[in-house]
Design a protein that fits this description.
Helices cover 77% and strands 0% of the residues. It is an all-alpha fold and 127 residues long.
């Protein structure tokens, strides 16, 4: 039983050490290796999947940005119609602050997603 555990432990360590060496020996992937040409044969678009995903992310971030701006506008409207009431003014400030925080989160998520997608595109395609 002890020899079997040692054997599995040795195989596990060797696999962890050898798999990256084998994976690093692979050739650079070009856009033709990704199967883009099969899209036109099946009636689908022939655009790169990474570009499509990038467009979906940009569209979603744009829509979320619009929602954040609308929240800020709602807060401004509530503040303007508060009529000097401190409770309503405080609620309006919370709306505006929440909208600004949401906008900051959305912009940082957009920047991070753009960086990751650009890094993936440059890493998976040839020069």
């Amino acid at each position: 039983m002890m020899k079997l555990k040692k054997l599995f432990a040795t195989l596990g360590v060797l696999s962890v050490l050898l798999v990256p060496a084998v994976a690093g020996a692979q050739a650079q992937i070009t856009s033709q290796d990704l199967g883009i040409q099969y899209g036109s044969a099946t009636g689908l678009g022939n655009q790169d999947v990474r570009t499509t995903v990038a467009r979906i992310i940009r569209t979603a971030m744009g829509l979320l940005g619009i929602v954040a701006v609308v929240i800020i506008l709602i807060g401004g409207f509530k503040w303007m119609t508060a009529g000097g009431n401190d409770e309503q003014t405080g609620e309006a400030k919370k709306w505006i602050f929440s909208g600004i925080i949401g906008l900051a989160i959305i912009l940082s998520a957009y920047a991070l997603a753009t960086y990751v997608i650009n890094s993936l595109v440059s890493a998976t395609t040839g020069p």
